[in-house]
């Protein structure tokens, strides 16, 4: 099974997971990335079952609209029932690293505004301890060097993601060499560094459910 076939399988599993929860008024929160793109294409097939969507990036909004799905601003939508998105890593407690596609800030906002966060991944994203994937941090451009120096004090090795500007007009530092044994605490500490807009740890609001595609089928993990 190729990785794309696994992404398609988990996207289809997510559709089956959310289908019973949908009604004519439902607004679906939709994430960003290659796995989320498979989900969007599958979601389009059931667009008669829900009202509209909220997107976590401009790219996702465009893809949803190309399928004829109405995209609402989150301020108009209010609280969402469900948010579906991929991740770069997940651990046994369903803490996540996200932001490989630089969409972490809007993703974290939509996740926070949703009752249930369903994370869709293939088995390459499963880890015991987060940090093998460099942790993305969105920063206000003028603060980039300052934030990088603060991260070095935390034993991280920040690398500027050159040429990338987020949907919010900011920049990304990718932090290597972190072994994240306490993701909730590190998420808070990083949020307190002046100039940090968002860090890619989704721990204080991690996933509620992870659907993980494997060559043998899709496994479900629920937050205990
Ligand atoms: O900023 C991007 C997002 O956090 C993505 O959800 C994450 O990088 C996973 O993307 P993919 O499904 O392409 O591996």
From TrEMBL:
Q: Which UniProt keywords apply?
A: Isomerase
Q: Which residues bind substrate?
A: 32-35, 85-88, 98-101, 125
Task: Look at the named UniProt entry and state the broad enzyme category this protein falls under.
Answer: isomerase
Query: What's one GO MF term for it?
Result: ribose-5-phosphate isomerase activity
Supply the EC number(s). Answer: 5.3.1.6
Q: Which GO terms describe its cellular component?
A: cytosol
Q: Which domain of life is it from?
A: Bacteria
Q: Which Pfam families match?
A: Rib_5-P_isom_A
- Pathway(s) it belongs to: Carbohydrate degradation; pentose phosphate pathway; D-ribose 5-phosphate from D-ribulose 5-phosphate (non-oxidative stage): step 1/1
What catalytic reaction does the record list?
A: aldehydo-D-ribose 5-phosphate = D-ribulose 5-phosphate
Q: SUPFAM superfamilies given for it?
A: D-ribose-5-phosphate isomerase (RpiA), lid domain, NagB/RpiA/CoA transferase-like
Q: Which residues form the active site?
A: 107
One of this protein's GO BP terms?
D-ribose metabolic process
How it assembles, according to the record, is: Homodimer.
As for family, the record states: Belongs to the ribose 5-phosphate isomerase family.
Q: What does this protein do?
A: Catalyzes the reversible conversion of ribose-5-phosphate to ribulose 5-phosphate.
Q: What is this protein called?
A: Ribose-5-phosphate isomerase A
What is the protein's species of origin? Neptunomonas phycophila
